[in-house]
Amino acid sequence: MSATTGEQAGAGLLDAAGRAELERTWAARPGLWGWLTSTDHKSVATRYVATAFLFFLLGGLEAMVMRVQLARPENGLVDPDRYAQLFTMHGTTMMFLFGVPVQLAVATYLVPLMVGTRNVAFPRLNAFGFWTYLIGGLLLYGGFVLNTGPDAGWFSYVPLSGPQYSPGKRVDVWAQTVTFTEIAALVAAVEMIVTILKQRAPGMSLNRMPLYVWAVLVTSFVVLFAMPSVALASMMLAFDRLVGTHFFNPAEGGDPLLWQHLFWFFGHPEVYIMFIPATGFVSEIIPVFARRKMFGHTALVLSLVATGFLAFGLWVHHMFTTGLPQLGQSFFTAASMMIAIPNGVQIFCWIATLWAGRPRFATPLLFVLGFVFLFVLGGITGVMVASIPFDQQAHDTHFIVAHLHYVQLGGFVFPLFGAFYFWFPKVTGRMLSETLGRWNFWLFFAGVNVTFFPLHFLGLMGMTRRVYTYHPETGWGALNLLATVGAFMIAASVLVFLANVFRSLRSGAVAGDDPWGAHTLEWETPSPPPPYNFLHIPIVQGLYALWERTADRPVVTGMITHRREILLTTVLDAEPDVRYQHPGPSIAPLLAALAVGVTFIGGIFTTWAFVVGPVLLFPALMLWMWKQSPPAEPLTESEQPA
Amino acid sequence: MHPLRALGRASVPAAAMLVVGGCGQAMSAVNPAGPQAERISDLTWYLTITGSAVFLVVLGFLAYAVRRGRRRTESAEGPEADRAMARWVGGAVGVTTLILLTTLVYNFATGRALADFADPDALTIRVTGHQWWWDVQYVDRAPSRRLTTANEIHVPVGRRIRLEVQSRDVIHSFWAPNLHGKVDVIPGYGGSTAFRADRPGVYHGRCAEFCGLQHARMDFLVIAEPEEQFAAWFEAQLKSSAPPGDAVQQKGQQVFLSKGCPLCHAVRGTQANSRVGPDLTHLASRRTIAAGTLPNTRGHLGGWVLDPQKIKPGAKMPPNPLAADELHALLGYLQSLK
Amino acid sequence: MSERRSTVDVSGLTTVPFGHRSLLWWGSLGFAVIEGFTLLLMIASYFYLRTNELDWPPGRTPNPDLLIPSINTVLLVLVIVPMRMADTAAKRMDRAGVIRALLVAEVMTIVVTTLRWWELLALNVRWDAHAYASAAWGVVVLHSTLLVTDVFETGSLIALFASGKARRKHYPDVSDAADYQYFLSAIWVAIYLIVYWGPRVL
Amino acid sequence: MIKRTLARSHLRTLALAVLLTACEREQRGYRDIPPGATAFPAVQTSELQAGPKSTDPSAGAYQENRWAVSEGQTFYAQYNCGGCHAPGGGGGMGPPLNDDEWIYGSDPENVFATIVEGRPNGMPSFRGKIDNGQLWQLVAYVRTMSGLTPPDVWPARSDHMQESRPATDALPQRQLP
Asked: ipTM of the predicted structure?
């Protein structure tokens, strides 16, 4: 039974009644109950991005307090205990509560629209992922407010974070927050892989997939293999602290380096989990604003995949000073330098496209140009610290702080802001103002350089990381003051961004379906897209879907509208294969997330929580799997009783 | 004189040089005072210069591409444009790979040079990291010539030093930028490194791995001095503390032994010999106290003894409420421990 | 809406896909990869910790017993048979056959899970004695959590089919559960050999 | 209506309670002035002298503070209390500290007085030797050995060779779940 291509005029196209029924079937329930039970990928993704951005602001505030404390020597703004909590919270928030979640949240919003389907593969799992992430964030900041914020660094090296040298529940709060955020990331990664492989619109074979979708696919596989490492490490640390196991106790056969291996095996891929989707944003923004097809599409896809693989071969460059055998470390030096080649390919292809195209300076392109500047500088300092001898001088100093902020702010936050400006009209239906956009960009760009470029010098002059103060005679005061001024510039630019967002939400110019003249499928839907995304699933005719669309482009018909259904297609050539029953909204994901919350937060205080929690989880999962949408209409084939 | 270093010293704008290099013994990774740090400093200059060049070239490409693009009326399509771009991108990636390879080879060469620096008759020093101070032991076959001191390491100029590091509690990292890269001090692991000081001077060092509340105040000094000066210092340090000279120092020693000091500190020649805290036998001969936090003057010593928590909050040393005369006598005694 | 002439009618496509044509197959594959990789990393940590010790198990700790673990491993491997029958019954859409096979598999899995406690005791060491004990307990406990979720999954499928609320689209879920069981049994055999035979043999 | 306000007020007091205790539990009290620091009589007028029972409420703060208990564990090892009382408090030359039998009383003040004044047949006096803040931390740790303080304040395992079971398991009568 294959899809038949009908030529008769308008057969099976939905009329107004069909559209109304589709609307009813896919709409979430009204009010708060509808919001809590919603499984619409757009609704979950917007609250996910908003929460992640809130944590970005909190992380920024922590950074501001640290910068003011370091503005001059022997400053007394915060005492060492508070400062330890501040830099740990800043690192943990930016990496675990903002970095990875916001990339996966934006992916769960855009990917279903870009591949031409109605919802993400496992919508209830998607909602469960958000609730788990939210509980993780609340746990961390609940702890921080109750003076129980983690204080052993965002990577909590053992034995300092072990049971003896970190008394109390501070590091336990950190370990459980990591567990929550990593469950949320794993869940989102599985959804993205299945959505991309099985739910692409007919005609979107693998060589017609947009570059951002490729980036999300590669990122999801990196998440799949990176997150288990930190899950295991934080579980082992929690057991060491709570039930007295000896995974990391050097006196009883444990090994502090085991923690470093397990953590950095996840740690380095994590920064690529944040960077690869950012290259996806850049690869979507440049063709639209250079008004030309991207040069070297296959080269970019191959370099994405290469970056994904190489990301797992570099982790020991975080451990060059621990005295591991020289031969082993040299392998990781070579791998760390090799990863600059695929990045180089990407950057040169982007520059070539700009050369061949007709670039127009809208804010998204400004952020992309700023990205190239900052990321190339950060990449070069990265190649510098990849060499073992230099890393012995630069490791754990402010040189590394400068490098990581150039590649993180430059490499991931700049493209993210570019993506905000690019897709904001699609999400909200309103344009962001260009003038405020320019202010936002130039303040941010200047702020990053003024803040972090001096830190290179401070690092070489001996200023180590995580110091709450320093002596006047070290001579570091001037550069630190300069860096603090830069930090205030960054804060100002983020305020300008917030002003821009709130102003345009109220009175921004109305954006049509496609304000930028872009080429991916989401620009075919109205802004903001209806719950069912596409009235008819489109047939894709080329890599640049909207630019290569013929006037009479065919669409898919014959799908039922009285119950949620999505079209599954084959993996390689995306030929229509199955009409798949799609689960409706349900409260079960929230209950399941709460049960998981009880398990792990309770686990900090008593091991009984690991018994009570699962007992609570099972009824929630039963409700999750059993509750079917009511069969108002005649049962379709798949709904015949078994 | 390595050509690159000369180039480095001359070409970098003076401001950056002043800020980074500094003169004399300012702590800096590019102001080497020994062969190890010098090799790394040369590598640093090479990396900085090639890196800046690559950065400027790529930025030049970007600027040219954007300017050229903006002058177009319609975008360059078609096979010959693609072929031209493919040539440029291929060339650029090729050059990038080439630069990376040369950097890799130079890095391996420096790495090997740093590694085979051991020397059988080197002076061996064992440094033990504690939470927030450094215990220093000069290792010698004869037990009578084993010296234990704290936070300050005297080394003879021109002689190779073999450094063995270990930790009693958490991970620290021993780093004297002017002499060599850092080596992590991991409990359960015996880390080791080797360096040599070619110029006499006082070189600052820091703990580079976050190790708790007072990680910021866990510095040390490496004092390189000529061979005979070092030998004299070493002999002096080996001797036990001299008995107290006058009545004030006598009373000071009485206060020292009666209060809780012997529970943590050792002064050879008295019955105080606990290894919990730093060895104070020759405290007065040291330049700084509290792991490089305060200069070793009477006023700072008094302030430190009375309330260490105000200076290093969280340190293991408790406050010592002393009456005025007791404090005066104690300081007199401590300053007599030359 | 501009009138489009040609359409692709998909109303004839199947709605009860088996194997890789269904989403759930891919979903359970994804989670099997995650759990499998976590177990692999745990086993890698077990061997990493082993490199620190001269003799493994260290000191006076006796080698793990073999009787109960071996019985339990055989039982867990045997669970594949009823699950295979459930899979074929599901493909035939034979509800009674599915329920029967799943019931047998569920009983066996529950027995295996209860025996697992004695398997842990067969390690002859408390988890907080030293690194060897922690690593051995860590690997076995991690696998046991997967076993408990397996018990729940098979149980809920039985309840679904027995209560008559099941629909034809639930048959592929049975074969997915069967695939997950093969993974669980296979990886346990590896853990069994490493944790119980490792100290003697390697 | 009343039920709801009642429930809400309960909730608020509960939240406040959690807030307060959690804050104290984790306070790194290196800056506090320990109780009894100034309580020592400057001049000794006569031989007869009542036991210095300082009923200072903040003495209790140390008992509930996780950081204080952990510091107490460090000082227990550093000042070699384990030499007589055994590392886990199991007792050796000195009496065991992890059982319910207290010869000189088990209140914080009594344990404090025992350490400061010393006791016949062997317990030395540490008056003036150990700072009062550290003494209260030692008292807090010693009392966790016999489970006299809330369980979630007990120290976890230490990073050293385990001569005996970890402290939390050394309690004969109270088996951890």
From this structure: 0.89
CA distance B132 to B113: 32
Q: Which of D31, D130, D133 sits opposite B263 (nearest CB)?
A: D130
What φ, ψ does residue A325 adopt, rounded to 5°? -55, 140
CA nearest to A399 within chain B: B29
Q: Are A117 and A567 in contact (CB under 8 A)?
A: yes
- How many other CB atoms are there within 10 angstroms of residue B274's CB atom? 15
- Burial code of A567-582, b = ≥16 C-beta within 10 A, e = fewer? bbbbbeebebbbbbbb
pLDDT exceeds 50 at position B8: no
Query: Sign (positive/negative) of CA torsion B16, B17, B21, B22?
Result: negative
User: Is it the case that residue B17 has pLDDT exceeding 70?
Assistant: no
Peptide bond between residue B32 and the one before it cis (omega within 30 degrees of 0) = no
Q: B294 by DSSP, 3-state: which? A: strand
Rounded CA separation A537/A214 (Å): 20
Cβ–Cβ < 8 Å for A167, D67: yes
What is the distance between the alpha carbons of residues A237 and A97, in angstroms, rounded to a whole number? Answer: 20
Query: What is the C-alpha radius of gyration for chain B, rounded to an integer number of angstroms?
Result: 27
Q: Which two tokens stand for residue C186?
A: 């296979």
Residue D170, pLDDT > 70, answer: no
Per-residue pLDDT at D38 exceeds 50 = no
Q: Could you give the C-alpha distances from A436 to A143, A362, A426, A490, C159, in angstroms and in order?
A: 36, 12, 19, 14, 59
The shortest C-alpha distance from A358 to chain D (Å) reads: 59
pTM: 0.91
Q: Which of C51, C47, C40, C111 is nearest to C75 (CA)?
A: C111
| Rounded Cα gap, residues B282 and A290, in angstroms | 72
DSSP summary character for residue A433? P
Hey, what are A631's tokens? 């069969």
Q: In this complex, do D130 and B318 lie within 8 Å of one another by their Cβ atoms? A: yes
Chain D residues in contact with C129 by the CB 8 A cut-off are 162
| Residue A24: DSSP 8-state | H
- Chain A stretch 288-327, residues whose beta carbon is closer than 8 A to a beta carbon of chain C: none
Q: C95-121 vs C171-192: helix axis angle to the nearest 10? A: 20
pLDDT digits (tens, 9 = 90+) for A34-79: 999 999 999 999 999 999 999 999 999 999 999 999 999 999 899 9
Closest chain C residue to D169, measured at CA: C128
Cα of D76 to nearest chain B Cα, Å:
12
> φ and ψ at A262, to 5 degrees?
-60, -40
The residue type found at A528 is: P
Residue A61 CA to residue A55 CA, distance in Å, equals 10
Sort C130 into a burial class: Cβ within 10 Å, 0-12 / 13-18 / 19+. Answer: buried
Is residue B257 within 8 Å of residue B271, measured between CB atoms?
yes
3-class secondary-structure state, position B81 = helix
Which residues, numbered 121 to 180 in chain B, qualify as contacts with chain D under a Cβ-Cβ cut-off of 8 Å?
Answer: 169
For residue D169, pLDDT over 50 is answered with: no
Helix, strand, or coil (residue A325) = coil
Mean pLDDT of all residues in C1-14? 71
DSSP A352-379: HHHHHS-----HHHHHHHHHHHHHHHHH
Q: What is the pLDDT of residue B51?
A: 95
pLDDT at C192 over 80: yes
Which residues of A, range 331-390, sit inside 8 Å of C by Cβ? none
A410-428 burial: b if 16+ Cβ within 10 Å, else e: bbbbbbbbbbbbbbbbbbb
What residue type is A129 in one-letter code? G
The Cα B173–Cα B152 span in angstroms is 16
What is the spatial distance between Cα C155 and Cα A585, in angstroms, rounded to a whole number?
Answer: 24
Q: What is the pLDDT of residue D131?
A: 85
* Cα Rg, chain A, nearest whole Å: 25
